[in-house]
Amino acid sequence: MRFLSAFFLSLLLLVSIPWPAGAISLVNKEVILEAQDYGVKRQQLALTEFLAPWLVYEEKAPILNETTEKAYLYTPFLLIANDARDKVRSKQVVELADSEKILADYAGCLVFSITANGNSPNFTEGVQVTLRQEKKVFKPYHAVANPPVKTPRFPDKPQYTAHSYFYFSDKDILLNKPITLFVTTKDKQERRFYFDLPKFK
């Protein structure tokens, strides 16, 4: 989990990809302050617990535990809340300007993080990721993929896990309707993650 937190922070600091104030919900000063307050009040939560409201498990997962494949949707609210959480935990001041910069940096896209499992050290090679809404299919315009690593269960299955981030333009996506994220890996295994967008803050 320490790795996930550090990687998430690196995305905030190093990847300048825009996100519109209108994505998921209208973001104004009131919403920014609400998101900052959310992050500050939940600063002691473990990162996985903090991110839980933005988590979706793979549709066909037989059980839900630490090995279940999952995906997160980083909404503007979550980006601001997580930044506030990190700042408070590192004894920094939570500033309105910092949150506004995050919104500007991520304007125009939807960001998903995916945790997938496989039984080969290269099972994510050539991974195919699409976002589908009604009859429309969207492909990511940017990806940050980490190589698979052995799971604590190794050599038991799943033997490997991989964390990746995918960025989609939200230009033609209806943010008031559900979407499904499809992930197909080298082993031809397809994963589906259903996001009911109106329910995400």
From TrEMBL:
Protein name: Uncharacterized protein
Highest taxon listed in the record's lineage: Bacteria
Organism from which the protein derives: Sporomusa termitida
